[in-house]
């Protein structure tokens, strides 16, 4: 593409669904995917190094968990406000700002001499990650034409699935040759490359013209952060008073937010989109499915290690077929969603996931590696056929002007589903210390079945 034409395409707002020419589309998609990969990897990459961080920084292991929690809380709190801001000032600006902040915060994490420094840097990194994840799907609607959007969403699912699967492995490889600081410093050169590609290739989008409601953003952030905090506290058996205060604070923030934005044409919490049956059913499908994912991934290590005698390393390899199949089938399902109804593809996939969860719950104590792995692969195949079509349905059921709100909801329902699933695992173990893992798997099968029903219900609406 000539430089003058490329410069014009970056400066002038591009219509939704038109897409970029092939060469520019590949470069823009690479820019977005590098950002998505970094933000997704850093959700879990630090887990493996927590003991080493605790020893090096001279803190207890319980205190070191804030390295994980700070990132997650900052990201979930900022997702909706940044998605809304993206609708107003353009998604490209939010994406670039998010990558700049994420890269600088990664440098600060890698240079951290104390735990408070590291936690503060992780908060900044979470905010940067939220900037990337709040608008990444909305950005794809400008990079890909309507005809190719499923392929773009499938690529996004592949990257997220790969990052989720490779996180522990990447961390282990880095820790064998370097200190934990390099888990974060590795993001700096990758972030610089992604930023250059962003400046060269990401198209502009037209602003909505609405004013940004700062107070609504505060209440939206407070609602989601306090809700996730309450769920996490419940999962970690915190004092009931702390859980109740957090839950009450979340409820108050939600009520104030809904009252303040009643009648707003583009509310931060996309209640206008939830009035659309296709969008609401897609969001419900996603939340139930990610709860299933969390129920399984949190409970399976206990089942495999305590119930079947596998080691920690063996457990990691036994779980790997699930995310690998998600990464492999994500692009396939994405391309199929350009031709077939999302309700059908995801509905079938989630029925397979429910079957896989039931088969995992029925595993005998003497189950061998093959018996476990093919069941994990079945679950991963089912999950893989859900993710891309469901994201496509969420985005295309929203008006183009509300792409930011829809993109923010994609990340929000994912995080809420995962947090709910983790809390339910804790409840299962409280109910029975010996059968808790199996109860969680059966509960996951139930959620997957409900998600499948919700997905098939979408066939009534197109």
UniProtKB/TrEMBL annotation:
InterPro entries: MFS, MFS_dom, MFS_trans_sf. Residues 28-462 form the Major facilitator superfamily (MFS) profile domain. The chain crosses the membrane at residues 28-52, 64-82, 94-117, 123-143, 155-175, 181-202, 214-232, 238-258, 279-304, 316-333, 340-362, 439-459. It is found in: Cell membrane. It is a multi-pass membrane protein. Pfam families: MFS_1. PROSITE patterns: MFS. One of its GO terms (molecular function) is transmembrane transporter activity. It comes from the Bacteria. Keywords: Cell membrane, Membrane, Transmembrane, Transmembrane helix, Transport. GO terms for cellular component: plasma membrane. Its main location: membrane. SUPFAM superfamilies: MFS general substrate transporter. This is MFS transporter. The lineage of its organism: Bacteria, Pseudomonadati, Pseudomonadota, Betaproteobacteria, Burkholderiales.
